[in-house]
Write a structure and sequence with these properties.
mainly alpha
Amino acid sequence: MMEIIRSEWTKIRSVRSTVWTLAATALLMLGIGVLLCVAVVNSSSPPPDAAAGVRLPLAGVMFAPVAIATFGVLVISSEYRTGAIRVSLMAVPQRLKLLAGKVVVFTAVSLVVSMATAFVTFWVGQAILGAATLSDPGALRTVVGVGLYLTASGLFGLALGALVRHTPGAVVAAMMLMLVLPQVTTMLPGTWGATVHKYFTTNAGIQVATPTGGDALGPWAGYGVYLGWIAVTMIAAAVLLKRRDA
C-alpha cells in the first residue's frame, strides 16, 4: 500500500492541472475574503459583530468547493482521459486498493491545504477587520469546519470522477450537486421539501462552516449527512470500478 501511496503522491504533484486547481481553491478563499473585508471597512455601515467578523473573511467557502471538487475529479479522470489508467491497473490489479490509495493521498493533501488556507484567510481577514478572534464562540470550530468542508467537497469530486470517468461530465455533475440543485431545493413545497432542502449535499455540509452552526441540522450532524452523500457516491464508484473495463 505504501508503494501505491507514493505513486499517487507523485502523480498529484507532477501534473500541472491538479496543482493549479488546488491553488485556485486557496486563491478563491483568500481573494473573496479579502475583497469583502476591504469593502466592509471602506463602507459607511457599522462595524461587523463577532459572528460577521468570522463569516466575512471565510465567505469564499461558498465557491471554493467547486475548485477543490475539480481537483478531486482530475485526480482520477485525467488518467482515463490519457489512458494512463490501464497502466495503473496493470501495476495494481486490486482496483479497490488503487482507489483507496488515491483517496488517502488526496485526503491528506487536501486537508493540509484546506486547513492552512482557512486559518490564513481568517487571520488576514482579521488584520483588516479586527472584529473577531479564534477564542470567540464558534470561531475556531468555523475555521476548522471550513477546512473539513473543503476536504469533503474534494472527496465528493473524486468520487464523481471515479463514477463518471469523464472530466467535463464529472465537473458539471459536481457543480449541479454542490451549487445548483441545493438552491433549487428551496423551491420544493411543503414539509417534505423543507426536509429535502435540509439534508441535500452542501446544504447539510455547510453547517459546519457557519459561525452559528446554521438553523437546520447543526454543524456536526450536517457534516455527517454530507459525508454520507460522499460515502454513497464513493461506494457506487468502487462497485463500478470493479465491474467496468478501463
